[in-house]
Amino acid sequence: MLKSVLFFLLLASPFSHAADTIIAECRLLNEMKVLLMTFPGKQCSFLDDGTVISLGSSELRRFGSNGEVMWAVNLISMESTFFLSHDSKSVLIMSVMNGKLPYDPRVYYLRVYDLDGFMVSENNSFDLFGSEKSVRITDFGQTIEGDYFINVFHDSMYILNKNLTKIVKSFKFPGTDNHLVKDVKVTEKGSYVYLHLPKRKLNQDLASVSVEEFLPGKIKAEKIYPPGSGASFYFPHGGSLTLSKNAYVINHPLSGTYVVSRKTGLVENFFVESHVTDTFRPPRSVSLQNLETFFSRWTF
Where does residue 91 fall: left (phi above 0), alpha (psi -120 to 50 degrees), or beta otherwise? Predict the structure, then answer.
C-alpha cells in the first residue's frame, strides 16, 4: 500500500532533480511546493542510497529503496528526536522521559545506531551530570572529528567521547547571554551554526533572535542573519533552524519558512506553512536537500 501511494505521488508531480527538495517532516515537495511523496512518521531523513530513516511516535524505522521496511527499533514510549551523524553513517537518537513528580529532573537518553539498526553506544543525562542536576538538552550531534556533542540550553556545549561515556570538554558560545542557544548544526569546516535567543521577559512568547556561527579557536561568533549589527527578528518558541548545502532554513511557525543564502546572508526564498502541510499544525521542521541521488536509487 505504501509503495503504491508513493508511486502515484511521483507520477502525479512535476519535479526538477537539479533543484533542492523541501523536506517538511516526512513530506517531500518540489520547488513549486507540490507534494512528491510522503512517509509515515514525524521526522525523516533521506539518504543517497535511496533509503529513508523514519521516526514515529515510539519506533525508528529504515525504509529500503523499494519502499519496504528494512528494520525497526522500538524506542519505548518517550518523546524522541533523531539526528544524522556528520558522515551520515549513524543515527543519533535523543529521548526524554519526565520525572515522576512535576519538579523532578528530566532524563535524556542518548543512543547511537548504525544504519543496520544496531545500537553501538548509549548513555543518559543522569550518568553524565548526576541525578540532581536539571538539564535541558536541545541538540545531540557529531563533530567533524567524530566525537559527539550535546547542547544544554542555558548552560554549555558539551563534547563527549566516541563511546558517550564521558564529557571531554565544555564551552559556551561567545556573547550568547548565558548560552541561550538551540538548533546547533556543524558545518563542513567544523564551525557551529545556531539560533541565539537573548533573554526575554517571563511568559514572553517571542524573542529577538539571530542566527550565528562560531568557529572553535576564534574569540567571537559571527552573526550571519539578519544582516546589520543591530538587526534581529522575532521568533516563537516552536521555531527551528536547519542547514543545507547552500542555505540556512529558518522555520517560523507564525509566518513561514525563510531560506537564507549561506553565501550572501540574504533571504532568497520564502513560503508559508500552508504550502507544506495539509493540517492546521505547522511542521516541526522544514529543510532543503538535493535529493537527485536519492531519487535515482529509488527502485520501485
Answer: beta
Please identify every stretch of the chain with a pLDDT value under 70, giving residue numbers as ranges: 1-18, 77, 101-102, 199-208, 227-238, 253-254, 272-284, 300
C-alpha cell at position 79 = 518523546
Can you say whether residue 178 is alpha, beta or left, with left for phi > 0 and alpha for psi between -120 and 50 degrees? Answer: left
pTM of the complete model: 0.84
pLDDT at position 165: 95
6 sits in which H/E element: helix 2-12
Q: What single-letter amino acid sits at 12?
A: A
How far out from the chain centre does Cα 187 lie? 13
Whole-number Å distance between alpha carbons of 64 and 85: 19
Q: Are 72 and 31 in contact (CB under 8 A)?
A: no
- Which residue, 63, 118, 110, 60, is CA-closest to 89? 118
Secondary structure of 82-139 in HEC code, one letter for each residue: EEECCCCCEEEEEEEECCCCCCCCCEEEEEEEECCCCEEEEEEHHHHHCCCCCCCEEE
